[in-house]
């Protein structure tokens, strides 16, 4: 998109004011950009930048989502602080975001999020609602910043990280951090946070899981206790190799069905 | 604690075409005129859309009196495929509520920065009359408490008086007020056709204090219900949403005692119960607004159900419903209890049958049966 706009190479006699390196790896902006006497997207070794004829807002909008939401927030923060004359409202409207005080607050607070977490967040395409949650956690949850600093080290998936952060906020237990810092695996941390956040259900599911394992299933049956949203139950798997085999296996299951209530659900 | 009318609002906007309405006139007589502003267009248009937490908070304190342009009647939101629910028509008399419950579904629904009260109730009554003429043999239930509390602003609107009077001519129809307010004195003297159900959404007092902000206490609600029962109005209670908390058994046992010690099964036409549920996206606003108030709702162990709503585990729901049902039945087998907004599986676990098949609830489902 950028390459189709009228532009020319411009040498770095201008001020490199933005000092902005996007965190997100896959960028549609191939080289640093120069707008009037500002340059951004430049590394220290860069010598040239594309001179933008369009407005900065339009160029940023055209580069989205290559720039990513987090990087856009970071860049907006710089623009807001150093170049208040540039319209962020116009920029975000071009990005199809609703310009509102909450977004302004996010931009102002983006600087409070640890850089390593931001980098991870940009690469994972963290969205508006998720940044809002992080922002709220920073303002209202003790030790939340330390958790943000720690999480990227485990390189969690977006889903695991956001659940971990949300559960940490919901639990409001600053002591939990000490236990969290001992984890070196994101999936294990996720399981730990689930049991903390859902103690009652974890306990019940755990009991049922054990009872299901202990149950005298016929040898052909693989049975396990599983959760599906707000319901849980036993998943039973077996293969009938022919009609006779299937009947035989169903009969074997029938022989133990009287014990289901007593041995599993009670 | 329930606020007085005057304490409830910071500013009142009156749409110019509503100036002659009785409610606008009452607003001028009840409020300081300096907080009233006449407008020709809907105010705060720029804030329409998804509201920020702050705008949502503010919306409860900005009253907007305007005519409603559209269809007053809406079918009950419980009447969806896959959900077992009662036959019920919703008559919207406004939008948004001046009370502030942590679990309120309006948090995921409201996109207006104002608490609107419609000023053209006479048009709603005309629509009802048309339906009555079209379907003279049918029994309709009409409720006014879906997107606003039926009575919490009734000392301003006095709509209860108009509705009760209007429903006198439709004795086959049932009118239901659903409220967490104690404001009933304004209509107790109105003659009625014994077809008005005054229903209270109730919860144990510890839940009222923690989750149902700016509502009347349990005691006040039950006192108001007593006043209505004494005047011959039909009474019902909605124990909804039941909220799980470590002492839920003791709390709900106490609630049942409060009800059964004040009312007989004969006086209470039915009791409905439902467990906490909300749209997943609503949890963010609830957290921002109520987590610091140590809400049991924001800390609840909720999972996404088949219908996409966050609910307690089904086994827990069944346990809560069984407990509640048994508490009532221990007092008297005559108590009539049903469960609202529940999946058929939970119905069949807790009750012997789904609501339309329970004899004492049959009447409620007559309309749907006729339709199908």
Please, could you describe this protein's structure?
The complex is a heterodimer of chains A (266) and B (372). By secondary structure, chain A is an alpha+beta fold. Chain A has helices at 56-63, 69-82, 88-94, 101-109, 115-123, 128-140, 144-150, 158-171, 176-180, 186-197, 199-214, 243-256, 260-265; strands spanning 7-11, 33-35, 38-40, 48-52, 222-228, 231-237. Chain B has an eight-stranded mixed β-sheet with strand order 4-5-9-10-11-13-14-18. The longest helix of chain B is centred in the last third of the chain and has 18 residues, at 314-331. Residues 79-85, 352-356 and 358-372 of chain B have low confidence and may be disordered.
Helix content of chain A: 40-55%
Shape verdict of chain B: globular
Portion of residues in beta strands of chain B equals: 15-25%
Task: Tell me the structural class of chain A.
Answer: alpha+beta
Element string of chain A (H = helix, E = strand)? EEEEHHHHHHHHHHHEEHH
* Radius of gyration computed on alpha carbons of chain A: 27 Å
Number of helices of chain A: 13
Short overview:
The complex is a heterodimer of chains A (266) and B (372). Helices cover 50% and strands 11% of the residues of chain A.
Could you list some keywords that capture this structure?
heterodimer; A: 266 residues; alpha+beta; 4-stranded mixed sheet; two-stranded antiparallel ribbon; 11% strand; elongated; B: 372 residues; alpha/beta; 8-stranded mixed sheet; 5-stranded mixed sheet; globular; disordered C terminus
Secondary structure elements and pairings:
The complex is a heterodimer of chains A (266) and B (372).
Chain A: E1 7-11, E2 33-35, E3 38-40, E4 48-52, H1 56-63, H2 69-82, H3 88-94, H4 101-109, H5 115-123, H6 128-140, H7 144-150, H8 158-171, H9 176-180, H10 186-197, H11 199-214, E5 222-228, E6 231-237, H12 243-256, H13 260-265
Parallel strand pairs in A: 2-4
Antiparallel strand pairs in A: 1-4, 2-3, 5-6
Chain B: H1 5-8, E1 11-15, H2 22-30, E2 36-39, H3 53-59, E3 62-66, E4 73-75, E5 89-91, E6 94-95, E7 100-101, E8 115-118, H4 121-134, E9 141-143, H5 154-157, H6 159-167, E10 174-179, E11 196-201, H7 205-211, E12 212-213, H8 218-230, E13 234-242, H9 248-262, E14 268-275, E15 277-278, H10 282-290, E16 303-304, E17 310-311, H11 314-331, E18 337-339, H12 344-350, H13 366-371
Parallel strand pairs in B: 1-2, 1-3, 3-8, 5-9, 9-10, 10-11, 11-13, 13-14, 14-18
Antiparallel strand pairs in B: 4-5, 6-8, 7-12, 15-17, 16-17
Helix pairs in contact in B: 9-11, 11-12
């Amino acid at each position: 998109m950028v390459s189709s706009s009228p532009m020319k190479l411009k040498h770095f006699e201008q001020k490199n004011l933005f000092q902005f390196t996007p965190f997100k790896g896959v960028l549609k902006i191939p080289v640093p950009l120069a707008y009037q006497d500002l340059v951004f997207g430049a590394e220290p070794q860069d010598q040239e930048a594309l001179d933008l004829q369009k407005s900065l807002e339009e160029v940023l909008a055209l580069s989205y989502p290559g720039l990513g939401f987090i990087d856009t927030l970071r860049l907006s923060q710089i623009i807001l602080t150093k170049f208040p004359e540039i319209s962020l409202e116009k920029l975000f409207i071009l990005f199809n975001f609703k310009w509102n005080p909450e977004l302004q607050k996010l931009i102002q607070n983006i600087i409070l999020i640890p850089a390593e977490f931001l980098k991870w967040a940009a690469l994972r395409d963290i969205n508006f609602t998720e940044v809002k949650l992080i922002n709220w956690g920073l303002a209202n949850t003790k030790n939340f910043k330390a958790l943000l600093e720690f999480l990227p080290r485990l390189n969690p998936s977006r889903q695991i990280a956001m659940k971990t952060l949300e559960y940490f906020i919901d639990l409001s237990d600053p002591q939990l951090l000490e236990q969290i810092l001992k984890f070196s695996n994101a999936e294990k941390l996720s399981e730990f946070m689930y049991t903390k956040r859902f103690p009652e259900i974890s306990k019940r599911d755990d009991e049922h899981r054990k009872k299901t394992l202990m149950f005298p299933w016929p040898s052909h049956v693989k049975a396990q206790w599983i959760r599906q949203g707000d319901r849980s139950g036993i998943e039973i798997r077996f293969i009938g190799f022919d009609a006779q085999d299937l009947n035989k296996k169903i009969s074997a299951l029938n022989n133990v069905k009287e014990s289901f209530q007593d041995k599993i659900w009670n | 604690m329930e606020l007085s009318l005057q304490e409830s609002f910071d500013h009142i906007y009156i749409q110019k075409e509503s100036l002659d309405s009785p409610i606008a006139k009452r607003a001028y007589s009840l409020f300081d005129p300096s907080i009233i502003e006449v407008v020709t267009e809907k105010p705060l248009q720029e804030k329409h859309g998804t509201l920020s937490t702050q705008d949502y908070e503010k919306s409860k304190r900005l009253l907007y009196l305007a005519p409603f342009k559209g269809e007053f009647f809406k079918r009950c939101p419980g009447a969806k495929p896959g959900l077992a629910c009662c036959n019920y028509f919703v008559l919207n008399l406004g939008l948004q509520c001046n009370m502030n419950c942590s679990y309120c579904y309006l948090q995921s629904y409201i996109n207006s920065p104002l608490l609107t009260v419609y000023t053209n109730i006479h048009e709603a009554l005309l629509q009802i009359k048309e339906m009555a003429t079209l379907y003279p043999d049918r029994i309709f239930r009409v409720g006014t408490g879906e997107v606003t509390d039926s009575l919490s602003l009734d000392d301003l609107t006095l709509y209860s008086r108009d509705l009760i009077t209007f429903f006198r001519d439709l004795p086959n129809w049932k009118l239901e007020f659903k409220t967490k307010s104690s404001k009933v004195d304004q209509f107790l003297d109105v003659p009625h056709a014994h077809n008005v159900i005054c229903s209270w959404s109730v919860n144990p007092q510890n839940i009222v204090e923690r989750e149902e902000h700016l509502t009347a206490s349990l005691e006040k609600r039950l006192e108001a219900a007593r006043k209505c029962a004494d005047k011959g109005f039909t009474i019902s209670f909605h124990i909804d949403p039941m909220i799980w908390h470590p002492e839920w058994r003791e709390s709900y046992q106490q609630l049942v005692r409060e009800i059964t010690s004040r009312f007989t099964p004969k006086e209470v036409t039915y009791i409905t119960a439902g467990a906490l549920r909300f749209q997943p996206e609503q949890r963010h606003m609830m957290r921002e607004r109520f987590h610091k108030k140590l809400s049991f709702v924001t800390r609840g162990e909720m999972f996404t159900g088949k219908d996409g709503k966050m609910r307690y585990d089904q086994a827990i729901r069944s346990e809560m419903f069984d407990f509640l049902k048994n508490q009532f039945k221990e007092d008297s087998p005559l108590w009539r209890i049903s469960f609202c907004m529940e999946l058929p599986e939970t119905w069949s676990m807790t009750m012997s049958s789904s609501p339309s098949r329970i004899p004492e609830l049959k009447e409620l489902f007559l309309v749907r049966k006729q339709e199908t």
